[in-house]
Amino acid sequence: MKIIAIETIHLARGVTVHAGPIQWLWVRIHTDEGLTGLGETYPDPVTEKAVVLQRLAPVLLGRDASQIDRLWADMFEAIAYSGWAGAELRAISAIDIALWDLAGKAANKPIYQLLGGASRQSIRTYNTCYDNYSFLTHPVELARSLYESGIRAMKIWPFDPIAKVTRGQYITADQMRQGSEPLRLIKAEFGDSMEVAMEFHGYWNLTCAQQIARALEPLQPLWLEEMLPQDNLAAYRELGQSTRLPLCLSERLMTRWQFRELLENRAARFIMPDICWTGGISEAKKIATAAEMYYLPVCPHNCGGPILHYALAHLAANIPNLYILESVRKHYLEEYIGIVPDTLGAVNGEIPLPPGPGLGVELSPGVFARKDLCVDRME
Ligand SMILES: [Mg+2]
User: Fold this and answer.
1) Ligand 1 centroid to 274 CA: how many Å?
2) Interval between CA 75 and ligand 1 midpoint (Å)
3) At 270, is the secondary structure helix, strand, or coil?
4) Is the pLDDT of residue 129 over 90?
5) What pLDDT was estimated at residue 20?
6) The pTM is what?
7) What is the CATH T-level fold of the domain 113-352, as seen in this structure?
8) What superfamily does domain 3-108+364-378 belong to in CATH?
9) Structure confidence at residue 169 as a pLDDT band (50, 70, 90)
């Protein structure tokens, strides 16, 4: 199964999340047997597609698409002198997902079967609340709407507006109360029947992170996610040792080697790779297995496009040490509509096992009719 062409596909108009507009890049690999494989990365298609077409296509064209590990290593070597993170690794991630899609289609099986089979019948999910910051204004109503749809865990980031004001360098007693209030209100209403993960997007210094963690301890959030920037994992170890609450890290760590440092620093209790950034399905499977050696659960990051969502459903179906899979109701109920035929939404708090073969999804024909479509190709 020889690779004969590589295409990049994206839309000029992106979607807007809390951090600003993002766009998804899709990569489609064509083979001489007529099969195609689909992958995805984000948030910056223009830089990512340059890497796909100019740096990685020469590595891939004419090669056997079934040799996923060999191709991954050769792509990684090809970018070694220009940095092994950023757009280079995001491009590898998208291609790796497309190679797994091809492998599944060639075997006529869902990807999770090739990874070692299903470890569960459906996938427990929590909702990340990209609903116009309604967790700040109507946290109990938001939690109730999730609860009524069968979802029993949610993620919010009420300290972010405060970090914007103080640049994460100090926090007053009033601000501490204000940041804690949504969690306090949800817990007062739902108690243990709604878990709440707290996200911090790396905005805080160590001192403030310790103060916030101590203030939140009585409210028992599910985890504290990315309180600090990701570059000093010894600082994270110090944070982890100073609080009873578990830390969750991090979509911003790249490849098995950065996760090795995280694991060896005993810095986190929840391991959160993003497969569109950290090196694809191949790398995430290795990271999950490494976490298993430390008896740590995995809760993959899932805030990208619909192909990431499907690829993650395959990984999450397979890995024995899954804790819970992130998903975004706004994505599968709104933003993925028209991009894929079935958005694989949560049913009663669970994501169904994805169909096959391969990923079990293609871009909808409507995507290819859009006026803002950008397609580039190397063969
Ligand atoms: Mg996060």
Assistant:
1) 10
2) 27
3) strand
4) yes
5) 64
6) 0.96
7) TIM Barrel (3.20.20)
8) Enolase-like, N-terminal domain (3.30.390.10)
9) very high
